[in-house]
Amino acid sequence: MKYVVFLAVLVVEAAVALVPSTGTGVHSQRRRVTTIRAAEAEMTSDSARKQLGNDAFLDRKLGLRAETGPGVRSESKLKIGIIGGGLAGMVAAMDLADAGHDVEIFETRPFVGGKVSSWQDKDGNHVEMGLHVFFGCYYNLFGIMRRTGSFDLLRVKDHVHTFVNEGGRLGALDFRFPIGAPISGLQAFAKTAQLPIYDKLANALALGTSPIVRALFDFDGGMDMVRDLDDITFTQWFTRKGGSRGSIEKMWDPIAYALGFIDCDHISARCMLTIFMLFAIRTEASVLRMLDGSPQTYLHDPIVAYLEERGVKINLRTAVREIVYEKDAGKGGLPSHVKGLQLSRSKKTVPSGSSVLDNEVAADGGSGAVVVDGGIVEAEEKFEAFDAVVCAADVPGAKKVLPEEFRRYPIFDNIYALDCVPIATVQLRFDGWVTELQDVARLKDATSGDFSDGKAPGIDNLLYSADVEFSCFADLALTSPGEYYKEGEGSLMQCVMDARAFNRSNDQIAKDCEAQIKQLFPSAKDLKVTWSNVVKLGQSLYREKPGQDKLRPSQATPIHNFFMAGSYTYQDYIDSMEGATKSGIMVADEIINRADAIKFDNLQRRRHALEEVSGDYSAKKKAEEQLAVAA
Fold first, then answer.
1. pLDDT tens digits, one per residue of 531-542
2. How many helices (H) and strands (E) does the chain have?
């Protein structure tokens, strides 16, 4: 308890030093304007702007907006094409459809979900890309899930973040306390067995003099300080404040890897402190939830059903080969208007587990073809016109599909300066319960009882480790038993291995992962692996290294009917499921706000085209038909 008192005193003293005595409001407002930079084309929607700025971090009402939808019907109905069937694209489609627009989604893969995808192999095993955990501050995503009826399918975990060290020694940040944030966090850091006393004191010194403390009394001022820390690494910031290397290696590195798959020596201080800020202000922010089963069943299927009920067409195995656009001669020939999309639709079923699952190797095999496992899949080419287009692809997808001419605008050119981190998601099924540390007999018994619905022995939560090559992991048979528990079988360990292991063969990665799991849980050394799977994603999250925040594109662009969405696009949260959701809502709000102007501009262009072909009867007739449809 004495450490809690010490930390509390340090927090109060630091707050006095950090909070300016006068002029805070004006200074903070001025800094906010410069820090939340606008891209070349600013957002015009008031609703979209509510997702930006310091207030958006604490605004639980955003969840209600996500739950109830845009709340308006556009007078001008647009035909909208969305490139990418990930979370951002699907969320945007939900709002646009509810606003009365005609929406189509185009997804290269044979399933939706993007970086949150899952699918079943030929034996019925659910395979995932990544390990997906829902923080309590995912207000927008929770609103979407309430809207589709899937929120109650989340399983709330104990308010504990557990670290597993070599030999089975556990450490934890146990936030369970009668008093909420920030006191619950202070006592969690004070009592953790993950750090020795020296490192705890160094932690107290660094965090006690951080922007987090100022935010407790002046949230705008504290958050503005965090925004200004995007040009240095977390290690640089932490050690300058008196933090210890031991704290970084035993606690902060595992958290950094879990957030962005890079360590504290490389991750932006802004990224790490943004999360810490939320944990310090909102008690629920650090509460973890996990789906009862696979993302496809428990997250995506309800969204797909919602979209299909509203007439949204989802085109799977359909690649966008080209964004067709017009140039403005009066602006130096810059791209000014998107006409539509050149599409390539696969005629054959893409086999599960093929190379097309890896966004790094799903490549154009020439005119009208996609490379799959070294073979050519026939495809049908066609052009489809749209009033507006949203590029909701991930970073590598956007780089592939954006026309070279678009790079004349800095907002698009900056995307090519972003790079992404590789991950390998490893799933290992055992014949016993790996994370059971107390009872060896129960650990080895996977057959004599009913272990469904999370009743199996072991640790039912997300786990971290500083001693292995996977940043975060969980036993899905325990945490998400709805589809991952199999009667008569044991743990399904899902581990996300980062760049340290990525370049090895899949077989070697699986063997190394098994060995490292048993290094953490030596009591499980005699358990056998009964099934394994490795999914490599060559480019997953964008690399949250210093200086990247300013490169992220806004959802609105200088091309009036072309928009961007995705977790990497600019919003105040990190690259995550919540970030993707925020971007989808923002881009929908912006299109809804501009619908009349976009429709009017498109009509004007068609009228102009009609005038140009007035001497050609057949061309004139076709233009008149298009104009009638548009009107």
1. 999 999 999 999
2. 26, 21
